[in-house]
Structures are given as C-alpha cells and as structure tokens.
Amino acid sequence: MPQKLTEHVPQVNWRSRRIVITIVGCGGTGSQIATGMPYLHQALLASRHPYGLRVFLVDGDRITETNCVRQPFSRSEIGLYKAVVLINRLNMFWGLDWEAVPHFVRCGRDVPDSDFLISCVDTRAARAVIARVVSLKSRRFQYWLDTGNLADRGQFVLGQPLRSDHKDRAKRLPCAHELFPSIVHAPADRRDRLPACSAAEAIQRQEPYINSTIANHVLALLARLFRYGRIAYHGGFVNLATGRVTPLPVDLATWLRLRAQAEKERAYLSRRPQGTAPASE
Q: Which end of the chain is more exposed for a tag (fewer CB within 10 A), N or C?
C-alpha cells in the first residue's frame, strides 16, 4: 500500500543564492502581493538566509483612472506602467534592486527564469499562455502559483510544472489548470463581464478586500514554505460571503478525485472551439 502523502518538501537548496520570484500582473491581487514581498524578504534575512529575494514584476498595463480606486496608484501616476511604478516605489522605500518588466507575456522570452512564477491575470487566455510558458523545456520554473477571483470569492494554487526531470512525479504538486481546466479555457472569456469603466462600477463589481485577502494567503503560504521547509496545503479557496477558507491539501486522494473531475470537465470543454495558439519560446 503506497505511503500516505501529507506534506510537500521542496528538493531545492535555496540558501545558496537569492530566491527568484516573478509576479505576472500588477492589478488588484498582483500589486498587493508585490507590496507584501519586502516583508517576506526581510523575514528571510532575519532568519539568516544569506541573500533573500529577487523579485520581477511583469505587466504591460498602464495605470488608468479606474485603477486608482481599488489598486495602490494615484491620479498623478495615470498613464505610467504599473510594474515600473510599483517596483520604483518598493526599491526606493526598502533599498532594493528589484526589476520591472513592462510588457505582457506572450511567449517564453517575456518572463525570466524563476523559482516561483506567480500569476495574477484576469483572463483565461492570459492564464493559458502562462500555463504553456511554465512548461517549456527551455525554461526553468520550479513552481507556478496561480491566483484568481470573482466578486467575492477566489482561489490560489501552488503547483510544479510537469517536467521530465522530476525525480518523483507522483508526489509533484499539480498545477491549477491540471485540477481545474476551465481556468485556461479562453473561449469562456467572452461570457465574462467587461472590466469596470468607472470608479463606481469598480467598487460594485468586486468586494473591496477580495484581492488583499487572496494576496495575504499567497504570502502566508510562501512564508510557511520558506520558514519550515514544508507545507501541508498548496492552495485554498476563499469565500468572503460566507467567511470560509477551504485549504487544498497535499493529498494524493484529493488530487485523484480532482483529476477525475478535471477529465470530465476537459472532455466537455473539448467539444467547444479553442481560441488560443501555442506559446513560442
């Protein structure tokens, strides 16, 4: 009988160098995660990690008036790149040398190799591109942490992109799109409501703290992984309407059940036209 899996222990020596984290998307959730990264960096240094973090922010979006309502931007910054504004702010305040990459992710060359790639994108098409990028054989991404949310609920899932060099593939953390294939089904984007075009709409369409709640759970998960060198869960589901948070455990039985559901969902989605092309290197 196979041994029960209850924890994930990374097979990586992160103390020999800086831990590289790339955040794709600097909107509601991405900007909150980026703002919390210096505290994680300081915690690592305080626990005698020799180097701490190196962070890249990737986003080709510019600041609009609507962004100044729910995101940490001011009217004086309208028209500037979100990634550049955020990284300059963090670098000046904390004395860091982190980098901004002010363009959208369309292929593997648009994202630096990273220990962790955190995606905070708002379309299935964008997430589908990232799912293909992290699986490219020519690139090195140890983990992919995907986030997403609706008006009052959301999720975050940490996974290890499927690669041929994984020693124990059975214990590999499955990625978000493997368990929930609809999140990369680009044609479904057409059914989603368009982004809010006014400040009032921005507030009405989303709970004010859904993004920061997701972001804090992401940061807490990473903090536990770095501090203790192991985690018992690799994601979770947050519902602000009920006040509940349901963890996604490191558990083979749970993954088996979710994979079975994903196969049925994938079969259903395959009967619908796909609207994305493969990512290039």
A: N
